[in-house]
Specification:
three-stranded antiparallel sheet, Multidrug-efflux Transporter Regulator, Chain: A, Domain 2, 3 strands, about 10% strand, alpha+beta, 4 helices
């Protein structure tokens, strides 16, 4: 099995089980709100409020109407080395 196939399988399993990879292993450029909230030890509602009020320590991008949080910014805020 190729590495990309393995990663896709792990991510699919996480989607259904609610588990997340360690932040150090995340290589995607953006995270969903639920993922970013998990890594920052915040509730998803908190991140949505940051986006709405534009007053949080990081701001998301909006892609197709969805919030996309920069993985690099989440790692920096969480104190994780890339």
């Amino acid at each position: 099995m190729q590495d990309t196939t393995k990663i896709a399988a792990v991510q699919a399993a996480q989607h259904f089980t609610g588990q997340f990879l360690p932040l150090e292993q995340v290589t995607r450029p953006n995270l969903k709100t639920e993922e970013a909230a998990h890594y920052l030890n915040r509730r998803p509602q908190t991140l949505r409020a940051w986006a709405c009020l534009e007053n949080g320590p990081i701001r998301p991008r909006r892609i197709g109407g969805l919030l996309a949080w920069s993985t690099a910014e989440v790692k920096a805020l969480a104190g994780v080395q890339s």
